[in-house]
Amino acid sequence: MSQKVVVDQETCIGCGNCEAVCPEVFKLDPAIDKSQVIKPEGGPDCVEDAIDQCPVEAISWQ
Ligand code: SF4
């Protein structure tokens, strides 16, 4: 089973929380003010923290 971390680009409001708690996996793109997944396979447990910290629930595993 291999899941990928996804940021829903419609929903993301570019708050930066995910990058703050999990910079290995998430990076804010300042040009569009959306978070990009730079490591879709995830990584450290911080992905779960990022999911918890996202105010609009834009992050999911698919
Ligand atoms: S925490 Fe959620 S809303 Fe904020 S930048 Fe990350 S994905 Fe977007």
From TrEMBL:
Q: Which GO terms describe its molecular function?
A: electron transfer activity; iron ion binding; iron-sulfur cluster binding
Cite the Gene3D superfamilies for this sequence: 3.30.70.20
Q: Which top-rank group of organisms is this from?
A: Bacteria
Domain 4Fe-4S ferredoxin-type, chain residue ranges per copy: 3-31
- Keyword Ribosomal protein in annotation: no
Keywords of this entry: Electron transport, Iron, Iron-sulfur, Metal-binding, Transport
SUPFAM superfamilies found in the cross-reference section: 4Fe-4S ferredoxins
Q: What does this protein do?
A: Ferredoxins are iron-sulfur proteins that transfer electrons in a wide variety of metabolic reactions.
Its protein name is Ferredoxin
